[in-house]
Design goal:
Structural class: mainly alpha
Helix content: 55-70%
Radius of gyration: 22 Å
Strand order of the largest sheet: 1-2
Order of helices and strands: EEHHHHHHH
Number of strands: 2
Shape: globular
Length: about 230
């Protein structure tokens, strides 16, 4: 059976049951479990150090009222970065290349930040729709533009994550197919293509981590705006 270029993004099924939920939950089995020992292992120490440094970094611009989101943002970051990195392994499925899944992450969290802003400081939250000092004739236009930009935010979050990961996977597949095709005909070109693919894979490792961080960072900025 010949697979299409985009078949790698289809959710896998087993006996008619979609395995997307398993693909999302399975990575958590890989994390080391906390222990009561005084001296932890290297993997647990590295994990705790990463969580501590990330939490400090992401909460740095937030006020005290938003610190209650620390656990949620940290778990989201770990989940996204793990799914993104595991998706680069051969014969694996990347759930975060699915736009509905990313929108399922983005829309509820964005909506929660908006609701918090309208509940805690409605005047300031609504004031973001109209910049101070706006000329009177431009007030209706600016309110419409700012409202549209507000509702576009969750779609931008989901589409950005999906597009960056999907583009990287497609490039890796194209280069790997070209390498296999050229290896019997023009092996010097095949070696060069393979080197480019290796460099691209390293770049995708960075992209997987950066996109997860950007997703959570933008959510934290929306939270800061509404708290």
């Amino acid at each position: 059976m010949i697979l299409g270029l985009f078949d790698q993004f289809f959710s896998p099924y087993f006996l008619g049951v979609p395995l997307l939920a398993i693909a999302i939950a399975a990575p958590w089995v890989l994390f080391p479990k906390p222990s009561n020992r005084v001296i932890h292992g290297r993997s647990l120490t590295a994990q705790n150090s990463f969580i501590l440094n990330f939490t400090k970094q992401i909460l740095l611009p937030l006020n005290v009222g938003a610190h209650k989101w620390a656990l949620l943002l940290t778990v989201l970051m770990i989940n996204l970065i793990t799914l993104n990195l595991l998706g680069l392994l051969p014969y694996t499925f990347t759930p975060t290349t699915q736009l509905p899944l990313n929108m399922g992450f983005a829309i509820p969290l964005w909506l929660a930040t908006v609701v918090i802003g309208l509940r805690n400081q409605p005047t300031i939250a609504l004031g973001h729709l109209l910049p101070e000092g706006t000329p009177t004739p431009l007030i209706p236009v600016l309110i419409i533009i700012e409202t549209i930009s507000l509702f576009v935010r969750p779609f931008a979050l989901g589409v950005r994550l999906t597009a960056n990961l999907a583009a990287g996977h497609l490039l890796i597949q194209l280069l790997s197919s070209a390498t296999l095709f050229l290896i019997d005909q023009m092996w010097p070109v095949a070696i060069l293509t393979g080197l480019v693919m290796a460099l691209l894979t390293l770049l995708e490792l960075a992209v997987a981590a950066i996109q997860a961080y950007v997703f959570v960072l933008l959510l934290s900025l929306y939270l800061q705006e509404n708290t």
